[in-house]
Task: structure prediction
Amino acid sequence: MGTDPYRSHSAAYANARRPDPRIAACIRSALTGCRSVANIGAGAGSYEPSDVDVIAIEPSWSMLSQRAHDSAPVVQGRAESLPLRDRSVDAALAVLTLHHWQDQGRGLRECLRVARRRVLLLTFDPAAGKGFWLTRDYFPEIQEWDNRQFPPLEQLQGWLGPISTEAIAIPADCIDGFLGAYWRRPWAYLDAQVRAGMSTFAKIHRLKEGLEHLRRDLESGIWEQRYGHLRTSDTLDIGYRLVVKHCGS
Ligand SMILES: C[S@@+](CC[C@H](N)C(=O)[O-])C[C@H]1O[C@@H](n2cnc3c(N)ncnc32)[C@H](O)[C@@H]1O
Result:
């Protein structure tokens, strides 16, 4: 089964990653008409709708142990080999997990196999997110990693067939502490507890240099000169996309 990347910082992760209600509303709306959902790469259960039948699939024991006692039933498993029968749920849902899968094409074929009506992915489009100040100016290594790990929309279309995509603008006070969540709160990235909810920071080699660069620019006012205009925006499109595949299309 390999090592569990969430084992060492599971408590910090759970603290940092809570569902944001505005993003939850976008996901819930895209699930309209679906009465049963397989939440794949479910983690601790964020974004699982409470008014439909949910079966959660998650490989990590650390994540499984963080699920609330009254959360949906969960099976330990991976996207690449879903422990579900063909066409057994209305929708397969995968939120910010695709970039972790070892074989994304195989995992998505599995989603198409088990879902009767819809496959829904919340993912990141590297082309749409390449202008994000954090990764472009301070952590280009993360951009390189993103380019390798997040499939471009054309690739998703190759695997899934026709899809629709919706840009998910990230609220300035986003509650879910994923990488882009703090686009208007730049000082937050200097906080190790905040970064503990962002698995990509653990994968790069030039973390210290990037943090020092950011701290310098914040203290000197350079960040403010370049990006202070962002303070007037309440949401920002930094490349997160809700991808919807209608089965049978
Ligand atoms: C960033 S977390 C997202 C969790 C949850 N969907 C959320 O939005 O909070 C990524 C999750 O993908 C899971 N994961 C990693 N490899 C996977 C695989 N091959 N199949 C399914 N899930 C996987 C991880 O264990 C982790 O729980």
Summary: The chain has a mean pLDDT of 94. The chain has one domain: 10-246.
